[in-house]
Amino acid sequence: MSVTIIHAARAFTPLEEISDAAVVFEDGRILSVGPRAGIAAPAGAREVSARDATVVPGFVDVHVHGAGGHDVMSSTEEALRTIASTVARRGTTSIVATTVTAPPDETRRCLEGISRFVLSPTNRSADVSAEIIGIHLEGPFISPARRGVHPAGAIANPSVTLLDRYLEAAAGTVKILTLAPEIPGALDLVERGYAKGLVVALGHTDATYEQAHTAIFRGARHAVHVFNAMRPFSHRETGVLGAVLTDPSVTAEVIADGVHVDDPAIRLLLAAKGTDLVLLVSDGTAATGMRDGSYRLGTFDVTVSDGICRNREGKLAGSTLTLDRAVQHMVRLGVPVIEAIRMATHNPARRVGMEARKGVLAPGADADLVLLTPELKIANVFARGVSLS
């Protein structure tokens, strides 16, 4: 692959802003990034002029159930390739494929299929677009009281043995484990997951403050789609939200689509955590990038109307959000653009331990790049150095 140099009005690395920027990459890796005046175009380099654009890292989404009419639980190569290509067109170049609660045999089959794809050369090829960098195991160790749309009959009691079977099926590709820490036996899973190097996340939980605080002490370090599927905050019993909002060791996801969380609650989250501890996620479903209609989420049906996903009971069931729109929403709330970009790139990459390769513009990192217009619309996307336009 020939050397390419992109000239842009500015770059957000996103740890710093570079005006009149240049990014040089070859063979899918960034060679250099900095002010254009200090970077000479290598001989024979292909030059891309984007003088009105901002270049940022490709977005990293650690909570994705599907896109393009396909769900990750099907775990076929066709489905995973379609999901990856659909989200990439909206700037997301790295995803963590997220499961939903299902019977053990179904979950193991799914984990085996996804892990085969994650570990295959196909996953890194640019024609797939977004790279699946791991698996997010959302359930089955969750609270029946806060299950959201997860099937009640498939919720499992916490079991180290069952978790180990899932991890074996996933062949080392699980990055995140979401659980409800108040369920008897769940703290054993917190410790097991932490020892295995997983990001143990609090989610779909009715935990009190003390129960959540204990889980954090034992190794939980993340909170899934904060405010959604959690015990509500009260001034006398702050619950899991009290622990998440006040502990600086815990990162927090938010679905910034204007539907899942009201803007004042997002502002409260930012005031409590700061932008460095907040991750933008989509919780995207098979309906992402598709028209209104009926789709599958795991083992059940969801209906999309006006872009909003709900199950048969009318409960919110994931979203059709993409991270470019989430960034735009945060900027409308007054978040500086560079910080909103960081919440969709560096923060999630750092959360899953991949900040040297993903979510950053730096020598040696993957050449996953997004060119944004002054209105923060997608102008072009590069996946491992290959333009998708």
Q: Could you characterize the architecture of this molecule?
A:
By secondary structure, the protein is of the alpha/beta class. The protein folds into 2 domains: 4-56 and 373-387, Roll (Urease, subunit C, domain 1); 59-358, Metal-dependent hydrolases (TIM Barrel, Alpha-Beta Barrel). The protein is 27% helix and 28% strand. It has 11 helices and 20 strands. The protein has helices at 77-88, 104-118, 121-124, 160-169, 186-195, 209-218, 239-246, 263-273, 323-332, 337-344, 346-351; strands spanning 4-12, 17-26, 29-35, 46-57, 59-64, 66-67, 70-71, 92-98, 131-138, 174-179, 199-202, 222-223, 251-254, 278-280, 293-297, 300-305, 308-310, 369-372, 378-383, 386-387. The protein has an 8-stranded parallel β-sheet. Helix 2 packs parallel to helix 4 and helix 6 (209-218) packs across helix 7.
